[in-house]
Amino acid sequence: MSAGREKGARRGRDARRAARAETSAITQPYIIRNIPFTELCSEEGLEIIEANADTILQETGIEFRDDEEVLQLWRNAGADVVGERVRFPKGLLRGLLKTAPSEFTQHARNPERNVVIGGKNLVFAPVYGPPFVRDLNGGRRYGTIEDFQNFVKLAYMAGPMHHSGGTVCEPVDLPVNKRHFDMVYAHMRYSDKPYMGSVTHPDRAADTVTMSAILFGKEFVDQNTVCTSLINVNSPMVFDAMMLGALKVYARANQASIVSPFILSGAMSPVSVAGTLAQALAEALAGMALTQLIRPGSPVIFGIFSSALSMQSGAPTFGTPEPTLVLSAAAQLARRLKLPFRSGGSFCGSKIPDAQAAYESASSLIPAVLSGVNFMLHSAGWLEGGLTSSYEKFVMDIDQLAMMEVLCKGIDLSENGQAMDAIREVGPGAHFLGCAHTQANFESAFYRSTIADNNSFEQWQVEGEMRAVERASKITKEMLASYQMPDMDMAKDEELLAYIAKRKEQFPDSNI
Amino acid sequence: MSAGREKGARRGRDARRAARAETSAITQPYIIRNIPFTELCSEEGLEIIEANADTILQETGIEFRDDEEVLQLWRNAGADVVGERVRFPKGLLRGLLKTAPSEFTQHARNPERNVVIGGKNLVFAPVYGPPFVRDLNGGRRYGTIEDFQNFVKLAYMAGPMHHSGGTVCEPVDLPVNKRHFDMVYAHMRYSDKPYMGSVTHPDRAADTVTMSAILFGKEFVDQNTVCTSLINVNSPMVFDAMMLGALKVYARANQASIVSPFILSGAMSPVSVAGTLAQALAEALAGMALTQLIRPGSPVIFGIFSSALSMQSGAPTFGTPEPTLVLSAAAQLARRLKLPFRSGGSFCGSKIPDAQAAYESASSLIPAVLSGVNFMLHSAGWLEGGLTSSYEKFVMDIDQLAMMEVLCKGIDLSENGQAMDAIREVGPGAHFLGCAHTQANFESAFYRSTIADNNSFEQWQVEGEMRAVERASKITKEMLASYQMPDMDMAKDEELLAYIAKRKEQFPDSNI
After folding, report:
1. How many other C-beta atoms are found inside a 10 Å radius of the C-beta of residue B34?
2. What is the rounded distance in angstroms from the CA atom of residue A50 to the CA atom of residue A151?
3. What pLDDT shows up at residue B5?
4. Which of B44, B45, B315 sits opposite A456 (nearest CB)?
5. How far apart are CA A263 and CA A242, in angstroms?
């Protein structure tokens, strides 16, 4: 390529990169894997961990705090309840979980975006929870509702992103007790992909269900799953009233909960992989079984968030091998329970989207995909241990997710894939660039990265020696500039806005 | 941590980081995996690929150029030789390969550094071949013998690096026809780890064998393997005289060859995974079987270098999914042949050690480790599609290799690993930081990265908002400053230097 290309040509290429970031590898609304599961734990190991989880459930038990209704449910089910501590006879929880579906459909308002969670399927969802956002120009700052909407827009435009997610960043500019209206509405209005609901208060979960009923119809929502929400366990071995309240609302409404032990090993669990696994399994079994006591057959996902604590700085670390072992074995445990599994993500501890961020993210993402995660929260945009949603990291991660989709397809063994005609045509010492098979297949043969610069060193120099984060910044801006809102039934939109306005008037703003 | 720490404290931490980079995770001279192989190709797929390779060998054949001796060997073995084209009856090559060992020991001059190549073992070796080097301060420049020695020193000091490698960079300041003396000597003198030999001319291979005989003893070298060298196939389906010459020298001397189809799919093979695999298998079978015709029982490794060509820029691309599928299936094919397998590396196309480099490197390294590579060339230092050896990337990759060692150990299922006492001791709602199990295990419980910054955002800011590459630069300098040459028998050193001096006088310098 000429070193003296004009600015117009460069702009054209940037636009093409952005267009590729949106559309590359959109072949399906979620991934159906055609490669085997990577399983890093032996059968013997799984049996030991399961036996230890049973022991924890029988001997130590789990605390369900400040929720008499839940304690009564456990008494009725045959558990041993002393104060808020619940101990479970062997087999009780596994028996209750037989009514939970091994896979389920989460409906999107655009039916072409429906996802099936469980089995051989993989659904990617964005980063969840950060109070800060970061971009190359603006640096790090508190998130706002505008940032929230921007991340919803990016997730909507990104082909490899299957889900709109939940708290893509905290809109810190809105009052804590009302921001969920604007967050859930943003997912409903700026995207047509499936979304997650509010879990920070039972009333906010109920608002999510009501707004979903406006969007999908009351009857439809009662009979179908339209939101999947994140219920973290207060590890070790505690469910608090807030999470229990949200779990009950969603299970009663036939909506999916992800019951996720939230574990920084060394603080919330033992400093060992097998110990962490036994505890997490015990916690997840108890929380998941509770959903079936509330509404048998309601969908529930076995989740785990696992990081190793830095014993030096006290911070969580990411991309290290021990959590990979936890995740892979937990995926095996979930398959033995015949339940969908949530874990993984593009995790990193780095403060910026540099090499640390990328090594750590790939080291989290790839083993998670290979191990058979079904629902992957935090699959794009995660920075700084989850404190920051990064614009550039979001589009960099999207590129990686698109590659995972290709990887999961496995090897094309068709006649065309075998390419024996090409080998016969070319023969020893020639090249394949011009042969018929190459001409017919080169456009789609290899995944083409949206972020990577594969030009010559000299070309890269002429173009300003850009780092990956600088290319990602350009793509992000192009994407947001070209965003187009998906169509929506305007009557539903009005009804949603009216509901939100009415509810917001019913109680004063508060930051609790 | 205090934001106002003194410079002395920072220096102390940098020194500790460097010390960790050297010694972390030195537990064994190579990795013995305790986790299963990730296998991305179905049994049916492997059978199709093997049948197609047989068809290529029978119908198209392989060219062995400018080497009458090799053609005569093939005639004698029962192959069909027409001109330089050799076609193989079905089963001939697999039959010949029955004498090749499924694993072998490559001896190092320090016997504690011996590596066993094959089976469940994994040996990491540095980047091979770049004409350029790069560091953060000096930028990109041609490599020199000083750079070469520096990379040998870094590989020697790095615990997770098992092998000294070969052309860690090209010492472009030395004449082409004599630089191999200084290169092989650098491996012998500045390190005591196993090394690779020269392959750029049969005479240079012979010099490597002679120098090895000085170092190890003539008899020992004839009976044992002390160097493992890289024989690239000129794909598609050609072996040239230069590589054949080196292969013959090494096989005759009982030294190991890695027979590696060098494939940019789309140019040197079809634009498809299954087509690339069939061709690469055919090529490798022919080259490997040749070693057994020369000396039955000599060690040989099934290698593959696989990258997808960018059909836009014509450059090789890295970290993309298609070469991962090639690699994983090729590892399965090698295991079916019961032969050691070489592939993978910390590959990237990026010009600098940024996020692109790290995503691509991790996406190359992790699947390669999981898939069961036995000998991994290019496992640290690779930059810019192999054009550049990077100082900072080298130590960044070393950190990743150390993590792979932990991952390959799998889950500790001992009583201590199960940690049930800790769970009983702590119970619901408490934390594990102070419990007896944590106190006893925290020092070694989790891998601690040498490169990652896991401090708070504020601490990171106070310390200058460093990128990973800047931290790596500091570590590199610390390591080189603290390098200490391993002990050596001075009589052997003198003999080596005398041999080199004598040989260098026997012919004029040349850059061919």
Report:
1. 14
2. 39
3. 40
4. B315
5. 18
ipTM of the complex: 0.95
Q: Please, where are the H alpha helices in A116-235?
A: 145-157, 179-190, 202-216, 218-223
Share of chain A above pLDDT 90, in %: 92
DSSP for B109-136, written as a single string = SSGGG-EEEETTEEEE------SEEEET
What the block records as the tokens of B480 is 């080189």
Structure-token pair, residue B233: 């196939």
Question: Is the CB of residue A317 less than 8 Å from the CB of residue A288?
Answer: no
Tens-digit pLDDT profile for residues A436-447? 999 999 988 999
B193-232 residues touching A, CB cutoff 8 A:
none
State yes or no: cis peptide before B236, omega within 30 of 0: yes
Burial of B28: CB neighbours in 10 Å, binned 0-12, 13-18, 19+: middle
Strands (E), A291-446: 300-303, 305-309, 316-317, 341-342, 375-376, 382-383, 388-390
- Bridging pattern class, strands B139-142 and B132-135: antiparallel
Helix locations, A262-390, DSSP H:
273-294, 321-337, 355-371
Spatial distance between the Cα atoms of A469 and A353, rounded to a whole number of angstroms: 6
Q: Using CB atoms and an 8 Å cut-off, which of residues 10-49 of chain B contact chain A?
A: 35-36, 38-42, 44-45, 48
* pLDDT-based confidence at residue A24 (cuts at 50, 70, 90): very low
Where does the pLDDT of residue B8 fall: very low under 50, low under 70, confident under 90, or very high at 90 and above? very low
**For residue A334, what are the CA distances in angstroms to A103, B75, B363?**
12, 58, 26
Q: What is the Cβ-side half-sphere exposure of residue B33, based on CA atoms within 13 angstroms?
A: 25
A contact test, residue of B356, B408, B473 with most A CBs within 10 A = B356
Cα separation values, A117 from A128, A140, A150, A194, B128, Å:
18, 34, 26, 12, 44
What number of H helices and E strands is found in chain B? Answer: 19, 19
At A183, which amino acid appears? M
Dihedral sign (CA A304, A305, A309, A310): positive
Q: Report the alpha-carbon distance of residue B347 to residue B370 in Å, rounded.
A: 16
Q: Which residue(s) pair with B309 in the sheet? A: B316
Distance from the Cα of A501 to chain B's closest Cα (Å) equals 38
**H or E stretch including B15?**
helix B7-23
Under an 8 A CB cutoff, do B418 and A272 touch?
A: yes
Provide the token pair at B370. 């999981």
B427 has a chain A CB within 8 A of its CB: yes
Residue B424 has pLDDT above 80, yes or no: yes
Residue A72 Rama label (left phi>0; alpha psi -120 to 50; beta): alpha
* Tens digits of residue pLDDT in A305-361: 999 998 878 889 999 999 999 999 999 999 999 999 999 999 999 999 999 999 999
Encoding tokens for residue A331? Answer: 């995926």
A31 SS3 class: strand
Which of A509, A376, A395, A462 lies closest to A157, judged by CA?
A395
Q: Measured at the alpha carbon of residue B504, what is the angle toward residues B501 and B507, in degrees to the nearest 5? A: 150
DSSP β-bridge partners for residue B306: B263
Nearest to A60 among B39, B423, B432 (CB): B423
In 3D space, the residue among A334, A242, A308, A251 whose CA is nearest the CA of residue A53 turns out to be: A334
Phi and psi at residue B233, in whole multiples of 5°?
-80, 140
Bridge pairing between strands A300-303 and A341-342: parallel
Cα–Cα nearest to B385, from B326, B323, B453, B340: B323
Write the pLDDT tens digit of every residue in A25-62.
Answer: 455 899 999 999 999 999 999 999 999 999 999 999 99
Instruction: Outline where DSSP puts E strands in B66-212.
Output: 80-82, 85-87, 103-106, 115-118, 121-124, 132-135, 139-142
- pLDDT reported for residue B313: 82
Taking the C-alpha atoms of residue A274 and residue A55, their distance in angstroms, rounded to an integer, is: 14
